[in-house]
Each structure stands twice: as C-alpha cells, then as structure tokens.
Amino acid sequence: MASRLYTRLIRQGADRSAVVVALGGGVIGDLAAFVAATYLRGIRFVQVPTTLLAQIDSSSAESRHHHELQEFNRAFHQPSLS
Hints:
Elements (H helix, E strand, L loop, with lengths): L1 H10 L7 E5 L3 H12 L5 E5 L3 H22 L9
Parallel strand pairs: 1-2
C-alpha cells in the first residue's frame, strides 16, 4: 500500500512543501505518517482522526512509543495538525 502512495506522490509532482493528510486513525494514520516521514526524507503530514477511539490512539501512541520509534527509524516528526 505504501508503494501506491509513493507512486501517487511522484505522479502528482509532490515536493518537500507537500502535505500528506490521514483521514482516519489506526492503520491509516500509521501508514500516512510512515510515507510522509520517508518520502523525500520527510514531508509534513496532518492527522484527522474520525472517531473518539482514533483521537485517543493518535494522541497517546506517540507518548507510549516515542523513544522506541525514534531510536528505531530516526524519522520523527509531530503531525502538523492533529
């Protein structure tokens, strides 16, 4: 799935000023965050959780895994909006 998003970004001519928007939570937010962090070595992204559970997940996942994820992939950016 990430390859499809990379392909769309490339075809649209997305550069470092582009923004990836995740409409939803869980896997959608994780995938958007990964693609945004790895496309052109990092572009901005916005998370728009659509349910209460998604809001809680997107706000607490960073605090639980912040240090481990930062050490794992060295690509850590807060969402532009959340």
